[in-house]
């Protein structure tokens, strides 16, 4: 299994480090078993994700996550970009009564699942993806023993 490179950027300082992000990605990689070429995960504000959502997806609103898949068609190696709104993640964490770090972890998992080919456009596919997301979230949270 090729580990690949994980780039992490923060538009502003949040309660999450690049080291923690990489550890989460590696744990998911270990559990799922995929080859990684390159992955960029950026934590940005609502205004920035709203702009990207409007420009690339024609949705005129902020969202919690946007994933861009740059992988080859055969998906031998995963390559992509995950944008996470820390503003929306914090709001969702309060709404679901979890820590922001827990929500960031869930969003990283969600983005990686999209890169692996999971889809949430129909109710049936969304249920499959959500079940996988929840099982990976439990594994990751148990392994890092925090959040």
Number of domains: 1
Biggest sheet character: 4 strands, mixed
Give the CATH superfamily. Answer: Metalloproteases ("zincins"), catalytic domain
Strand content: 15-25%
Q: Which series of helices and strands comes N to C?
A: EHEHEEHHH
Question: Which regions have little confidence, pLDDT < 50, spanning 5+ residues?
Answer: none
Task: Going across the biggest sheet, name each strand in turn.
Answer: 1-2-4-3
User: What's the CATH C level?
Assistant: Alpha Beta
* CATH topology (fold) name: Collagenase (Catalytic Domain)
Distance between the termini: 28 Å
Specify the helix fraction band: 40-55%
Number of helices: 5
Q: What is the 3D form?
A: globular
Global Rg: 14 Å
| Helix vs. strand class | alpha/beta
Write the layout of secondary structure elements.
Layout: E1 5-10, H1 18-32, E2 35-44, H2 46-57, E3 65-69, E4 77-85, H3 86-95, H4 100-115, H5 123-144
Parallel strand pairs: 1-2, 2-4
Antiparallel strand pairs: 3-4
Which features does this protein show?
globular, Collagenase (Catalytic Domain), 147 residues, 4 strands
Task: Please provide a written account of the structure.
- This protein is of the alpha/beta class.
- It is built from five helices and four strands, in the order βαβαββααα.
- It has one domain: Collagenase (Catalytic Domain) (3-Layer(aba) Sandwich).
- The chain is 51% helix and 20% strand.
- Strands 1-2-4-3 form a four-stranded mixed beta sheet, sandwiched between helices.
- A hairpin with a 7-residue loop joins β3 and β4.
- α1 packs across α4, α1 crosses α5 and α4 crosses α5.
């Amino acid at each position: 299994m090729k580990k690949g490179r994980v780039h992490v950027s923060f538009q502003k300082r949040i309660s999450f480090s690049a080291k923690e992000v990489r550890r989460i990605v590696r744990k998911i990689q270990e559990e799922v078993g995929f080859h990684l070429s390159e992955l960029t995960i950026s934590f940005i504000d609502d205004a920035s994700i709203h702009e990207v959502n409007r420009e690339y997806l024609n949705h005129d609103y902020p969202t919690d996550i946007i994933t861009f898949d740059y992988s080859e068609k055969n998906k031998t190696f995963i390559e992509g970009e995950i944008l996470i709104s820390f503003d929306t993640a914090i709001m969702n964490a309060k709404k679901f009564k979890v820590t922001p770090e827990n929500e960031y972890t869930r969003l990283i998992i969600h983005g990686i699942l999209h890169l692996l080919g999971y889809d949430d456009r129909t109710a049936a596919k969304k249920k499959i993806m959500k079940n996988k997301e929840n099982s990976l979230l439990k594994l990751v949270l148990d392994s890092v023993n925090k959040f």
